[in-house]
């Protein structure tokens, strides 16, 4: 594609997989992490086609600096993937206001401000650009144990629809609504490999997503194949999660 990407949270998980696959395909990437030493191997492998930048996405000045790095190094910014995010488990009734605020800041406000910084460049360049938010099914169903996270991701998916409206026609804005993903952190959420397989068996496609299956959908939304897609929340969840009552119901479905 010969595009210039900015990918937040490239240190591990989905962001790392996407950065590697985009670089392997020949594109140029500004890869960001809070600790850029975690990106050293990308710089060693891909040389001039990658810039590694320290970015805490909750810092507006650093977000603008990361966007400027793309422009200074590569002359433009075609794609922003707002991937950095996540949340620890917490009890909605007792979690501190500070924790709630931090989670909403990381998963809703920070992607908004990085998108603002990217849009300011994309509006001024030929061909505009594309912004992809990495959202979650947690924003579309109850999210016990991660209430603020689910609410923030729901907000992110709504934000996409408004930004797509306000920033058209030059900039398309979409989200990938990811289901459960088999990242290197999956054991923290689900347990050992047997537990991960058991959790996967509850999904219609019978397993968790592999990171590249989410990354390919982000790449699709960023690509000319999706040239008329803007303001969309693309579910990538293997068919979704069964309503819990079905497991307890005693009525013969026939
Ligand atoms: N894994 C899943 O099952 C799943 C499902 C649905 C949606 N998602 C979403 O997919 C995205 C990536 O998740 P993942 O599973 O790959 O998570 P992960 O392995 O925990 O990685 C999270 C990434 O976000 C970065 N990050 C966290 N706080 C940051 C901050 N303040 N500033 C900059 N970077 C920060 C981390 O960087 P550090 O190295 O600096 O900590 C890391 O690179 C998230 O938005 C998550 O909500 C994941």
Secondary-structure blueprint:
Elements: E1 4-7, H1 13-24, E2 28-33, H2 40-46, E3 50-54, H3 60-74, E4 79-82, H4 97-122, E5 129-136, H5 147-167, E6 171-178, H6 186-190, H7 193-200, H8 211-222, E7 233-236, H9 245-248
Parallel strand pairs: 1-2, 1-4, 2-3, 4-5, 5-6, 6-7
Bound molecules: NADP nicotinamide-adenine-dinucleotide phosphate (NAP).
| Mean pLDDT score | 97
Radius of gyration, whole Å: 18 Å
What does the oligomeric state look like here?
A: single chain
How many E-type strands?
A: 7
List low-pLDDT spans: none
**What global shape is seen?**
globular
Largest sheet: 7 strands, parallel
* Structural class by helix and strand composition: alpha/beta
Strand content: 15-25%
Distance between the termini: 50 Å
Which bin fits the share of residues in helices? Answer: 40-55%
Order of helices and strands: EHEHEHEHEHEHHHEH
Strand order, sheet with most strands? 3-2-1-4-5-6-7
Small molecules (ligands, ions, cofactors) in the structure: NADP nicotinamide-adenine-dinucleotide phosphate
Q: Helical stretch count?
A: 9
């Amino acid at each position: 594609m010969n595009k210039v990407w900015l990918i937040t949270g490239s240190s591990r998980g989905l962001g790392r997989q996407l950065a590697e696959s985009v670089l392997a395909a020949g594109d140029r990437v500004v890869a960001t992490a809070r600790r850029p030493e975690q990106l050293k191997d990308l710089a060693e492998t891909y040389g001039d086609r990658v810039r590694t930048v320290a970015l805490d996405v909750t810092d507006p000045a650093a977000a603008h600096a990361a966007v400027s790095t793309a422009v200074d190094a590569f002359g433009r910014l075609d794609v922003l993937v707002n991937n950095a995010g996540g949340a620890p488990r917490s009890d909605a009734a007792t979690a501190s206001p500070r924790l709630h605020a931090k989670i909403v800041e990381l998963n809703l406000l920070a992607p908004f401000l990085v998108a603002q910084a990217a849009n300011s460049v994309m509006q001024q360049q030929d061909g505009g650009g594309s912004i992809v938010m990495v959202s979650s099914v947690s924003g579309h169903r109850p999210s016990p144990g991660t209430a603020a996270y689910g609410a923030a991701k729901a907000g992110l998916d709504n934000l996409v629809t408004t930004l797509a409206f306000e920033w058209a026609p030059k900039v398309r804005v979409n989200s990938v609504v990811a289901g459960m993903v088999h990242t290197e952190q999956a054991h923290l959420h689900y347990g050992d490999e047997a537990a991960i397989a058991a959790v996967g068996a509850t999904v219609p496609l019978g397993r968790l997503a592999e990171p590249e299956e989410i990354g390919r959908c982000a790449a699709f939304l960023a690509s000319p194949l999706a040239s008329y897609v803007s303001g969309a929340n693309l579910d990538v969840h293997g068919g979704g999660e069964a309503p819990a009552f079905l497991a307890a119901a005693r009525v013969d479905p026939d």
